[in-house]
Amino acid sequence: MEHPSLPPPRLTPVERVREMWDDYRHLITGPRLLMAGAGLVIAVAVAAYMMVGANGAPRPEAVIPMATPLPAPSTPTAEPTPILVHAAGAVRTPGVYLFRGEARVHDLVTAAGGLTPDADHDRVNLAAVLFDGQWMYFPRLGQTTVPAPVGGSGSTGGGTATAASGPLNLNTASAEQLESLPGVGPAIATAIIEHRQRNGGFASVDGLLAVSGIGPSKLELIRELVAV
Question: What is the model's pLDDT at position 225?
Answer without folding.
Answer: 84
